[in-house]
Amino acid sequence: PTLLAHGTPAQRDRFLPAVARGEEIWCQGYSEPGAGSDLAAVRTTAVRDPGDPTGAYRVTGQKIWTSHAHEADWCFVLARTEPGSHRHRGLSFLLVPMDQPDGRIEVRPIRQLTGTSEFNEVFFDGARAHPGHLVGGEGNGWRVAMDLLAAERGVSTLAQQIGFEEELGEVVRQWARTPSAARDPLLRDRLVRQWAELRTMRWNALRTLGGSDPAAPSVAKLLWGGWHQRLGELAMAVRGAAGTVGPEEWSEQRPYRLDALQRMFLFSRADTVYGGSDEIQRTIIAERVLGLPREARGQ
Ligand SMILES: Cc1cc2nc3c(=O)[nH]c(=O)nc-3n(C[C@H](O)[C@H](O)[C@H](O)COP(=O)(O)OP(=O)(O)OC[C@H]3O[C@@H](n4cnc5c(N)ncnc54)[C@H](O)[C@@H]3O)c2cc1C
Hints:
It is built from nine helices and eight strands. By secondary structure, the chain is an alpha+beta fold.
């Protein structure tokens, strides 16, 4: 959606077919150790290299929590192209290839609660980005980055909801196979509620398609983050005590052997954080929908 909205025809031609065919994997280089909810505090820099024949950018800095960086072909990086610029001014949105000569990009996996490592620390040390891969023009990165987040929180979740539907189906199957759970009217009530809320989320995500309601993506994010977390809790409630035990014997070599529902439960702890935390979404809704006074932000 971001390249459709802000990309040049050449960028769309180069990147979108491979995205549609699932041939190139992307990761998101936004968060930094000092810039999470407060994304405008980004410190990674991208400066034009006068010695480079194409005038390429050199990207230097550290990103963190970068999902799938270890397997990605490209990273979209929010970086400061105007030295000394402040907050959201002077930022640019650059498409950076992950395959670079040794040492220019280092990816260090971070081990998660699930025992797996979906996200990483990423260190850029003069990584090269072609000037033709700047999206939205120099200094306009904030606008591009915000539009991307709106898509991530809203319309992109339409695809994610197919996965939610499958997970809910698996929880229902578990419930039907577990006699003590199947007899429990409270669990039945929670299952029906999850089912109904999933329908509501779908209609809400469809509302974001037009892109005219600035708060709709934040409402969508609040809905699906909490919904998925509750689904994880429900899956464990259906399992009962068996949910605390792994499907296979524990061993030193494979300490975390979890089945799909246990993994879902543990991973869903992060649903109210990534893509912008619940607190941040509530602030956006308070300011843009309810018209409450703006929060004082860092200078
Ligand atoms: C599983 C996972 C995958 C991720 N993948 C990516 C990725 O691919 N790329 C990427 O760039 N980032 C990624 N992130 C990072 C994610 O975007 C950040 O974790 C998130 O924006 C919160 O930032 P933070 O972790 O720095 O927490 P902080 O911003 O330090 O927030 C800590 C707590 O304080 C609260 N808080 C902060 N500021 C305010 C405020 N003004 N008002 C009220 N409460 C506030 C937050 O809500 C939160 O509860 C991922 C995170 C997770 C958990």
